[in-house]
Write a structure and sequence with these properties.
Strand order of the largest sheet: 1-2
Shape: globular
Strand content: under 5%
Helix content: 55-70%
Number of strands: 2
Radius of gyration: 19 Å
Largest sheet: 2 strands, antiparallel
Distance between the termini: 25 Å
Length: 250
């Protein structure tokens, strides 16, 4: 286990970029504090409702539209199974960031602003609104999308598990395992998973949604995390020898 205690050496951390700080305040207000009032639910409950309900929602769409194409069933297996994987992950090693209490309006915003749009991906395909004309033969494209989903799930699960169990035993900078070469492997896994969904749907709307999520949420979270990690003595060396998101590219 490679970690460095926070107090091993006195270092001067740097602040997150102002754009990241401003975006974090904005999204936190929309999700956690919007309109004030009671906080009857945890953020994780809103997320888990969407994840657990995905299989049911997609199967209901299939029954409603009577679309039993191969692509539709493959997509249902991909996104529906991913939702169940997320639930298993939350039961086994819940992310502390999702355990905070949020307002009623904040929960509605979280679903309407991001989570609900993931269901729209499936509706586009099942309803026939999207008529995919893939760049490769269907069987090859399905193989690519399913592979992205499976490998992305594995990366995300492994990274989150390593973080949860390592930090439970010892606080510090994690520089081995899934974090050895990539500083944010959990986000890489999520991007691969939802990239696979978008490629299956092959429509402009998922591109818009994912651009917002990846730049407005993921990039902000990664920037804030890097600023937080800069307080550790090993940070400079770790940053120099690792990649932000994708090995050899980014």
């Amino acid at each position: 286990m490679s970690t460095v205690p926070a107090d091993s050496t006195t270092v001067t951390p740097y602040a997150a970029p102002r754009w990241a700080q401003a975006m974090r305040r904005f999204t936190d207000h929309l999700v956690a504090d919007f309109l004030g009032g009671p906080r009857p639910w945890k953020f994780s409950w809103v997320i888990n409702f969407q994840k657990a309900g995905t299989f049911v929602f997609l199967l209901a769409l299939i029954a409603w539209y009577g679309n039993h194409s191969t692509g539709v069933w493959i997509y249902t297996a991909m996104q529906g199974s991913y939702g169940l994987v997320w639930i298993l992950k939350d039961l086994a090693f819940p992310d502390p960031a999702w355990q905070r209490r949020i307002t009623i309006a904040g929960g509605v915003n979280a679903f309407a602003g991001v989570l609900g749009w993931y269901w729209v991906f499936g509706w586009l395909l099942v309803s026939g609104t999207s008529q995919p004309d893939y760049p490769l033969p269907d069987y090859a494209w399905y193989c690519l999308c399913v592979s992205l989903c499976i490998v992305g799930c594995a990366i995300m699960i492994a990274a989150d598990a390593q973080k949860y169990f390592t930090l439970r035993e010892r606080k510090g900078l994690i520089t081995d395992g899934m974090h050895r070469y990539v500083r944010h492997p959990n986000y890489l896994g999520e991007i691969m998973v939802y990239g696979g969904f978008a490629m299956m749907v092959w429509h402009w709307l998922p591109v818009i949604v994912l651009t917002w999520v990846w730049l407005g949420l993921f990039a902000v979270n990664m920037a804030m995390k890097e600023a937080s990690m800069s307080r550790y003595a090993e940070w400079a060396a770790y940053r120099k020898r690792s990649w932000w998101l994708v090995p050899f590219l980014l």
